[in-house]
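fyi for ur records
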Amino acid sequence: MRRSLLALAAFSSVLFAQGTPETRVYPLANIATPQSMQETVNAIRSLAEIREVSGDWANRRLVVTGDAEQLAFADWIVRAADEAPSARPTTFTVRDTTFRDPRSATSVKLVYPAHLASPQHLQEAINAVRSIAEVQRVVAFTNQKALLMRGLEQETALAEWILQDFDNSAGGAASHETRQATYQDNQGIPERYRSTAVRIYHPTRITAPRQLQEAINGIRSIAEVQRIVAFTGGAIALRGPEVNVSVADWLEKELDQPASAASAREFAMPGESIGIVHTFYLPKTAAPEDLMNSLNIIRQHTGIQRAVVYSASSAIILRGTADQIEKASGLLH
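which gave:
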């Protein structure tokens, strides 16, 4: 016990050790709005872990107090945020550096996308980086149309891969093929539950905001994949256990098929002897409220809880036992 306490004390002393504090004033040349100044303040607080940082918009400057290593990183951040727009890269570019962190979150990446220009696309990119790659220290510089992040090397590497794909999608260069990656998820849980499978789908027909949201709802519920986000530039990104993602692969193809090809199909749940995913297609004239009424009836009379609608195809997607699916079929015909 004593040895554990000494080890914890040693770790804490490294984690919180600081040199002599110094205050530094940064005059700003190209940060043009209070929002851009606040983004820079947030970046310094989050990534450099400096609490004493403030923006003085009236005098166009930042005031930062930290130790020498923190201030060296703050210098790097301010130079990036205050760079002249004419110096911004025009192609997808990543600038790397490192920052001390006993917890190993030392990898820093400043990403300049070529096509992620709108605030919505930048926010969706941040959501993907946080959810799929688990990088929590990430901020946008809207003036530079750039993203700055810090995390474990494997986290920032996955984040860069996602951002490159989103950037290609936004620029119209991505094909409609599914992209795959593997993430090393060693969170001390059984192997079958580790979230190692990464996918980015580029659907052909799941494009409207409502379609994207219903598709995501369906994958979350039916495949039990919780790490999933939409990119309105033309992609759906997710990460989960291999078994669950295999269900998501099937379901995404099912939802993205042409309306003329839509017919009842089913998929046997991997690793389960009784689980089935089944799609039913109602007449194209069915209104959204008709779909929801049918769904509620199925839930009430079959006990199926994993059930969703996909309005664009007038589809109801169910996951249950063979007996439950058969009973649902009788209710729909």
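Residues 25 and 175 are 47 Å apart (CA to CA). thats all i got for now
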